[in-house]
User: What shape does this take?
Amino acid sequence: MTIERDYSLAAVNYLRLDVKASFFVVADSIDAIRSALQFAHSRKLPVLLLGDGSNVVFTDDYPGLVLKISTKGIKLMWNESTAIVEAAAGEHWQDLVAYTLENELYGLENLSLIPGSVGAAPVQNIGAYGAELKDVLHDLRVLDRQSLSEKTLTREACGFGYRDSIFKGKDKDRYVVTSIRLKLARQSRLLTGYGAVERELQNMRVTEVTGKAIAEAVTRIRRERLPDPSVEANVGSFFKNPHIPVEQYRLLRLKYPDMPGYKERDKVKLSAAWLIDQCGLKGRNCGDAVISPRHSLVLVNKGSAKPDDFLKLKDIIQSRVHEHYGLDLEVEPYLVN
Ligand SMILES: Cc1cc2nc3c(=O)[nH]c(=O)nc-3n(C[C@H](O)[C@H](O)[C@H](O)COP(=O)(O)OP(=O)(O)OC[C@H]3O[C@@H](n4cnc5c(N)ncnc54)[C@H](O)[C@@H]3O)c2cc1C
Assistant: This one.
């Protein structure tokens, strides 16, 4: 295990913020993860787990150990009508999606092209185009960061919600997710009801809607709508879409008849991008931190933005949306303090 000191994190976070970690380790086995945690315990260092760095915002140098998980391996096991696919935490999510599609297994197609690692996927219960990880997760393995012992958590034990789980909530900083197991169908169970996906399938003149066709439609939509993080440094949606009570939505609609809202169980999901747009903030910047002119939910590093530039821009957006609509936008990525 190589322990780097005063390591620049610019290449391992999607915002390309040039901050430093006091210590940095890449762990490619569970034993290496244990050793790194023991090293941090012995020096009483805080530990930040890192996957691909696509959902973290560093607010300063990190005065501890950044532990990048890079364990690999995907395994396919069959039972009667379903397949169980097990993937190590350090696999790239998109490689897992591609693997399942190659094996004609269904369930991940709507989650195509989401950046990041497999191990981070349960942390915020990744979701897109009507699907969420929790819909297909069977269980997962974790390593307890204190006792260093491993155990299995069922899907129910993970406390999944909208971009939420116990790993962000009550058990934050308790576990390393080391692998996940998905239960996928051999037969397609396709979610095409999401408007944009349906329209794209029509544009593609698809006659037979397969998992691969949906993955292709989702990939096209994402490429069209979202700034490419390899060209414009970003962490995807910077804010969660607010979920508000139906009555509150009804009252807001009386004042703002164009305000879009999507009924989800007993709440209405609003579009955070729409709220930001309506406040006239598209394109607004603080230094090199800019609200993407392509998508108002995405904040981009134009070159040499500092953590403070993003924090200032975040504050401006939150206060303007609050002043206009009385709504509080919650940050989606992990702000590392
Ligand atoms: C262009 C773009 C588009 C995106 N689109 C979507 C989208 O459609 N839907 C969506 O849900 N998300 C989206 N995201 C967010 C991001 O892709 C996901 O949150 C992804 O799961 C993060 O993976 P990561 O490996 O990069 O995590 P990181 O950024 O490295 O870490 C994220 C959090 O997970 C923790 N963590 C990482 N690995 C582990 C582990 N093994 N065990 C425990 N904790 C761990 C970290 O400590 C941190 O708190 C998008 C991001 C970008 C840049």
